[in-house]
Write a structure and sequence with these properties.
239 residues, Helix Hairpins, 8 helices, elongated
């Protein structure tokens, strides 16, 4: 999580966990006290799923998440606290920042699964293995050859026909890898449903570990192909 999620505003006075800092009524995990309406600090270990009161499921409803984001954004907006105490204004700023980070992460399927894998201890933040999947080695080799030929032709001032042919070959290769990227996203959807089913059925640790490792491998595959497509696009735009 970001620094904003881990660095907490100093409370005006110590309070028992789960109690409103103002009226001392139990608040649970709500962002506002049901009794007095005061904004509440986030618990130190609050993750993005907990922020939205969601289980660690991956097949989220984007429309429902967006509605919840807008509702919380309106309630937490600093403009609503201009006459409140300094502590409440700082809580509003802090919690709004976490809200934005959480929404950006959970609304994107790839960012969402990467975040979950980090929570589950499967991988560290930003850890991606940039290694060509074995079944793609031949196609990756061919694509890289086209890239090198195009770069060499540009350096040597190749004729228009040669450059046009190389560009066409690269565009075809890029389209192929874009299709593969779509296939990975479809595999993610299947993996998400499998993970959610394990949570619903209280699946054992071994099954969960296997599902997480499968999603981690898919994430590596997605990152590798996405970078390939990006590299080809950059080269084509420069030529």
């Amino acid at each position: 999580m970001t620094d904003s999620a881990t660095s907490r505003v100093q409370e005006p006075a110590a309070k028992p966990a789960g109690l409103c800092w103002s009226c001392k009524v139990p608040t649970g995990s709500d962002h506002f006290c049901a009794a007095c309406g005061k904004i509440q600090p986030l618990a130190p270990a609050t993750d993005y799923f907990q922020f939205f009161a969601l289980p660690r499921k991956l097949a989220l409803d984007p429309a429902a998440l967006e509605r919840q984001f807008h509702q919380l954004s309106w309630k937490l907006h600093p403009d609503n606290f201009h006459q409140a105490s300094t502590y409440e204004r700082e809580l509003s700023l802090e919690t709004s920042a976490v809200l934005n980070d959480a929404y950006r992460t959970l609304r994107d399927p790839v960012a969402r699964v990467e975040y979950l894998l980090g929570l589950e201890g499967v991988r560290r933040e930003g850890e991606i293995k940039q290694q060509a999947p074995p079944e793609l080695l031949e196609e990756v080799f061919e694509l890289n050859e086209y890239l090198e030929e195009l770069r060499a032709a540009k350096r040597s001032g190749g004729d228009v026909r040669e450059l046009s042919n190389l560009r066409h070959q690269l565009e075809k290769a890029r389209d192929t890898f874009r299709q593969k990227l779509d296939q990975v996203l479809a595999e993610f959807e299947t993996a998400f449903r499998a993970w959610d089913s394990l949570l619903d059925s209280n699946g054992d640790a071994a099954a969960r570990s296997s599902a997480l490792e499968k999603m981690s491998a898919l994430l590596n595959r997605h990152s590798y192909i996405r970078n390939l497509v990006s590299n080809v696009t950059d080269e084509l735009e420069e030529s």
